Amino acid sequence: MAHISTGGRGREPNVELNLVPVIDLMSVLITFLLISAVWTQVSMIQLGASFASPKDASQKDITPPPMEDLVLKLDIRANGYILYIGKEVRTLPMLNGVYDKESLLAELTKVKQMFPTKGGVKMAISDEIQYEHVVAAMDIGLKAGFSPELLTGGPN
Fold first, then answer.
1. How far is CA 52 from CA 44, 47, 70, 112, in A?
2. Residue 25 main-chain phi, psi, to 5 deg
3. How many CB atoms lie within 10 A of CB 126?
4. Which of 61, 96, 120, 155 could link 147 by a cystine bridge, Cβ 3.0 to 4.6 Å?
């Protein structure tokens, strides 16, 4: 270990530094750093191009998908479906304790006929909804010609 000696008169002070606790602390800190670095990589969101980066001359102007301003949202709740088409709200309650899938398909098909260029339907799900009901609603959206997009946080 480290030893400090002074060249003065009388008895020399014998001071030894115990470096074992410092080494232990450093090994714990390095381990924590390595573990936390892996988790920060997992939680990163990959973005194509930064908003702060200069625009390439080769890139074309990005145009939003057609009918993106029309809000088409489906809330899947414990008491049935609620379909938002722009500012219009259509409620499809459960029939005899079962989701009314036929009515939902008919409504989404009507919307697709009215707005054939609309590409996706956003779906918000309550926490108590079982997974099979979510998959069934997504399948109905695909049958109607929409690409379902799940929203986090549930319906408002």
1. 18, 12, 29, 37
2. -65, -45
3. 13
4. 120
Cα maximum dimension of the chain: 102
Query: Domain 72-151: which CATH class?
Result: alpha beta
Residues in the chain: 156
Place of tokens 């989404």: 108
The H-assigned helical ranges of the chain are: 20-42, 101-114, 131-144
Separation CA 144–CA 141 (nearest Å):
5
Q: What's residue 9's pLDDT?
A: 65
| Cα–Cα dist 12/4, whole Å | 9
Q: Any idea where the domains of the chain sit in the sequence?
A: 12-42, 72-151
CA distance 148 to 83: 13
128-145 as b/e: b if 16+ CB within 10 A:
ebeeebeeebbebbeebe
Residue 152: its pLDDT value, please? Answer: 64
Q: Can you read off the two tokens belonging to residue 137?
A: 């609603």
> Which H or E run contains 149?
strand 147-151
Q: Which residues of the chain have pLDDT under 70?
A: 1-14, 38-69, 152-156
